Amino acid sequence: MEFSDKFIESFLHPRNDLLVKMEQYAQMHRIPIMQLPAMEVLEQFLRIQRPKTLLEIGTAIGYSALRIAQALPDCRIVTIERDRERVQLAKQFIGESDAVHRITVIEGDALEVDVANIQSVFDAVFIDAAKGQNMRFFERFSPLVPAGGVIYIDNIYMHGLSDMPVEEVPRGKRSMIRKLKEFTEWIKNHPDYQTTFVPVGDGLLICLKR
Length: 210
Prior knowledge:
Elements: H1 5-9, H2 17-28, H3 36-49, E1 53-57, H4 63-71, E2 76-81, H5 84-95, E3 103-107, E4 124-127, H6 134-141, E5 150-154, H7 174-188, E6 193-198, E7 204-209
Parallel strand pairs: 1-2, 1-4, 2-3, 4-5
Antiparallel strand pairs: 5-7, 6-7
Helix pairs in contact: 3-4
């Protein structure tokens, strides 16, 4: 069963002026941010979970970090981005919000940054960066998540490419899709996680640590 865009959009909540400005900037400059229905689903899961600390891999312009901060007024967020220009944009946008003191933006490669010096435990991790690196991100940061913590991963469906045989995927994306497929098969059978796929936006994976 497919739901109409109009029906889905009727459940979206109004955003403040800053978030609308960020959405317009992202669209104008072709910067990918999380699709609105998926963003709201993620926020709702986080409201239920109520993490006190959250690590985000892939800041972009800071949109999702700000959305999460607004949904979780008691949560401290660390977010990592390797693109210098986007880091500056994120800091600028976040600086316009009242959540600026709860969000730490780190410039660097998430596979190299030592976040344990900033925060040793994260109740939640949100991975929204290079899709072919999901396995490495997961293995690097899952030890920082306690039992009962959750790792959320966006873009698992990759606009339908994840559901295609690798040989039918456009050649330039085959390596990334092959790695993404390997990761999803691996996490589905991981003994330490209960994993669920939510078919919203571009596909959201929710991994609950046992």
